[in-house]
## 1
Amino acid sequence: MQTYPHSPSRRAALRTLAAGAAAIAAPTVWTRSYAAQTLVVSDPGGIYTTAYTEAYYQPFTKETGIQIVPVVRRSNPAAEFKAQVSTQNFNWDLSGGVTSDVSDLLIAQKLVDKIDLSGDAMAAIPADCKNDYYLADSGVTFVLAYRTDRYKNAPTSYADLWDTEKFPGRRALRKLARDMIEIALRADGVPGGPEIYKVLSTPAGWDRAFAKLSQIRPQVKVWWDSSPQSTQLLQSGEVDMCPTFNGRAQAAADAGAPVALVWNEGLYSLAGWAIPRGAPKADLARRFIQFCARADRQAAYTSKLVNGPTNPDAYRYIAKELAVKLPTYPDNLARSRRLDDAFWSRNKAMSDQRFNEWLLQG
């Protein structure tokens, strides 16, 4: 079972502020209403905290005088939202890196406060990346990654992942029903997007997906269940082909490994910001989220985190050599299709059970 870093309480987090203040740029604009105030912001930790500190936390403090105290939360913060809203005892004021499927759940359970969608920056963000309770500030794409030192001719689709004669070698797949069913149907000739869910609207469609997975199972050397593991598998050369998140494959390539990404048939999802319902500093949190909608701020996080900005104007601030590596870069986005969060939320329990039972058979 995966473990997560302990998330400090609000009081403990605030005690760290004095020690960490020197690391945060001194604000150039202080106002009577915001000076010396704080926001405790949770995020997934690691590279997210690093990227958000540089792109959001420090610049927001510099502009407003509002100090940001980052704390690490669980990968899926739904339980933390629910506990805080139920008890009205808040460890943090808002959370970033919340995936769109989790945001749908939080909204359905009435666990989040409204955000402020006014202003030019919010207006620039596509409608499917925002709603009254959630702002997605980044996109992440699940892609096919491969070792370029193993293949003279590059694979171009998930069908090539299944083609062990043309593309022999060791495979790794993710131990997650949703992503594996999606790519199995792509490999079987179903276009990504709505056609996937049309096929899965009947029992025969599910049978088709699992039949396709059974074809590749003997070739799977590793079933990975943590994202960093997929980076290590590619970087070390333990496997030759591995569907994974674009950032994880890019991390292996940036470390010097001969790894390339196939954007064709990618499946992308969103991550962003939400405020627990009843949070006492919701007004400050809304102001912070508006800051995160700005094109220059979204561009800034891409130097550390290769997620794709949702504000299209962000690409004005991103060098071309970096832009082409991002999920929302127009050429990459055009070859990907968004996951249907609502569909997978409805079918999660059933698909997870069937997938886990299928794994045990092999």
## 2
Amino acid sequence: MPDAEFWTAVLKTFGPDPRGRRLIVRFSGHKEYEQFCLALRKTDPDLRASSAIRTLPLIRSVALSSGNAETWAELPGVADVEEDDLVGVRAFPAAPTAVPWGVGRIRAPEAWRYSTGDFVKVGVIDTGVDASHPDLRGRIGLGVNLLNENMPPYDDNGHGTHIAGTIAAGGRPGGMAGVAPGAVVCPVKAFDQAGNAFVSDIVRGVEWCVRNGVDVINMSFGTNRRNRSLHAAVRFAVRAGVVVVCSAGNGGRRLKTDYPARYRETISVGAVDAAGRIARFSNRGADVDLYAPGKNIRSTWPGGLYYRLSGCSMATSHVSGVVALMLGCDRRLTPKLVKRLLLASAQPTAGASGRKSVDALRAVRLAMRGR
């Protein structure tokens, strides 16, 4: 039977999970459990805190964020290992004063009976977010300001707050509802007040998202220049299980899309207007995967205000919200499967043969079936 010294060495070897994923480890018997607890009492308090270890004597188990399930399962004295699933109380959001036309068009309100994207983390790499906006209170999670790491990721431009509202505004009475009002936006400020960012800051933003357990990354930006570092960052995120949703760009080009949306690992999004037709400003090259509302979109704005913007940026945030709804049904969906289900559930785009537009209700129903 492994003793306390054995478990002390295990805890020091594993260290905390960088994405914050939690496991429940159940021991073979009471003696094995007690030996682990004895080791735990002798362990460095900082290590205990970083691994967020909780003892569960009722079931001779511990919950922790350290190591991985496969490794724990192979250790002597361990009977079972499983994910420490997140469970929440559920209620449909009350009918808000305003459901923006885009949120309604993609049938997000009809999908809320199945999922509101509860606890799904959406990283928004952008200009920051005004977390004090009434419609975003309680919807903003951990974030980072890559331009000044001593400051919070406050939005001094407006673009990021607008994106965040479309994704996850809470639907309070008198406010507006986003596509996934149960999701959590993690603001990553990589763009300055003028709306510009170095690729290196975007790459750092992607890394931060992966290290902090983000489920979806919204990239409402683009460039017409291929960049190997940016592509490597996208591949890194997708390999880590993060869905990456990107703007196709606003150049009105019929044959090309922007980067990083042109990379096959991403979900590339163009824009449609209120009539369901591709907006004149939207790029529409063969690399565009699907379309979403992007013209005259009303959403949150810094200072508790609302503002209307147009662009593929706005379309991208609609699709990121739909992905959050899907993952709210099944966290096991991989980026590749999410993309396949989105395309399989999309509806024909008006006046554009072969082009499809996102349908939140159909996407969520497919996600519930897992195929």
## 3
Amino acid sequence: PEARAEAGRPGPSEPEEVDPEDDVTVDEEDLALAEAPEPEEDPEPLRQERPRKAAVLAHADRHSIAAAMLLAREARQVEGIWVYPQDELMTFFRSVATDLRDDVTIFVVGFQASPSRDAIQAASLYAGRIEWYDTQEWPPEDLAQLKGYLGDDFVDVRPHLESPLPLVMPRCSRRSRFSDKLVDLLAARFSEHDFQRWGRLWWWRLADIASRPGEHKNALQPLLTGRPSDLTTEASRAETPPPPPEVAFVGSRDFRIVHFGGYGMVVIEVPPELDLAMAGRIARERYRAHLSLALDPRRGLALLGTNDTLTPRPMAVTAMAEHLGQKLAWVDLLPGDDHVARIHIAGLDAHPERLEAVVSEIGMGRSILEG
């Protein structure tokens, strides 16, 4: 006889019922999707360590042009070096950049993205091959947008600096004795010998080039080649340029001298149209001071310089700048990759007493200066 199912249990020939909610049947397409690896996000592009070809755009000022030259020396081939004031930034993107080949890296030095909408959109077309360096205060939204298009590694903007040199120095791997001399010239750390042989001419010539917008690769070729002997030969044939305007400025005024522990420090406020480092250098020489504190009160920027010819060994001004940044809450240590000791004194125009606190702290830090 056929076997009967026990009450509440199916017989051998009856399939067990399955609750629809417990049905976990998976078709092959769903299974394949489940086993597929998660898609990886595209990695952010990295800049080339040493570009093969480069085009250089420098703001029309001495320091931006010099910084741009250091970047140009990194490239194996330079397509051109263009110099424009801020209000002609879009001239480069509309008239020059459109003709550059896709394998050319573009260096932009000393410009704010202004007009912001046009400049940022234009720069975004060259994402992955454009690098931007600047020292001005940017609207946060503009800076974030430019970094969003180009990538953090391609944009370096640090406000309060008087020069983009400390920003481009870490980028430069092709360092040489000449490139170091060029940095020393711009930092007013030159030897008297170098200044008289070629530095004075090029200090004037860089300012002259800045006054003439356009392409200047030929005019800057001696710096691109970088042979001091050639610079000296050329300078000997050129007409002697006028002395830097900082000479007349320092010579026509009296400045405060602070004495401490056998040292003297001249404190000098410099108008924005003059070079801060050069004015500090000339003031040290005029007063035979061991140190100078050169100030741009408008920006709250201060450079601490030293006259190494008056001391047995160089004074540790960079260590002093670090100390001031750590000791005083309203002092910020600024980049010093060009070996310049610079600080930012926040709120200096509203709080002139902060300058006195900085001067006092330097005076009490003789052991730091002596290393």
## 4
Amino acid sequence: MKVTIVGGGIGGLAAAVAFHRRGWEVEVLERAPEFTEIGAGVSIQPNALRALDAIGLGDRLRDGGLADPVAGVRLANGRWLVRNDVDDLRRRFGQWVTVHRADLIDLLVEALPARALRPGTDVRAVRPDGTVVHGGGETVADLVVGADGVHSVTRRSLWPEIPGPRYVGYTTWRFIVPPHPVGESVETWGRGERFGHLPLPDGRVYCYVMANAPARSRTGLDRLRERFARWHDPIPALLSAAREETVSQHDVHQLPELPTYVSGTVALLGDAAHAMTPNLGQGACQALEDAVTLAAVVDKLGVPAGLEEYDRSRRPRTQLIARRSRQVGAPAHWTSPPLIALRDAMLPRLPKSFFERSITPAYTWTL
């Protein structure tokens, strides 16, 4: 049995490893000239770490160093808006790891035979019979996996009538700075903007900024430094340590809820199926869940029945988490002074159970 995977990001490569471990012939078609990621970290939350366990790679990440869950949310003046009990989160849900995306890509690539990897392959169309049209001709497989991101060629080929991704109104800057003492992972909210930082195992710090902005607008590092100069420590210092060439900016998009993730012998996974806002840090985590679930059910049940089971199990879950992510992040982007005052007064008073309802469904997944 052969599977062709369109897209060599985290989800696509994880699917390739999952199928390879089950004895399938695997082919990964990636548009970029090499398999890599630049300039950003990723939080591997407990559910994603269990997905990596399913393909034998979880302990490799744990060996690099464990991370703490996010300690909470602060205001620009440093006051805590939400304070998490990180020990309780670890006890209830499991371990967290924060890693550079490039290191995770390398780990997945190393688990695959070189013959399976075809970088520099521009996919142009996918057909429901398992045919993939690309710059080098055509390839046919028993199963095709569309893991080609938010602007998926696979999705557009098979569901041309479905609206494309929608800009949610804010953009994101991501970068990694040299080692700096930050203590814990924290997100800070202002008026229509926020700043987050997560320490990496080697002491470097992964940082992200989100801010309301017109679509396709671009803002440089100097402007970000001015914008956040009066926010609490260590935010100004982290921005000061950043280098312009390491900062990437991307508008945040979300897909409408698709009626199905499968067509013929083709399945979508990750952002191609359910691109979501980054507010719960679950984008890559859900792609990893998709990947190992797809391989498990198709290998067990066969392609037609396996795809039906994949859609039945994955679509409701991922669409629920996408909705939760959008809802959780919305108050950070309010700009109305009365709404912000209400937010800042009420969030510290909300019971612990209110926040648990948002995160528990994400963290408790098992294969």
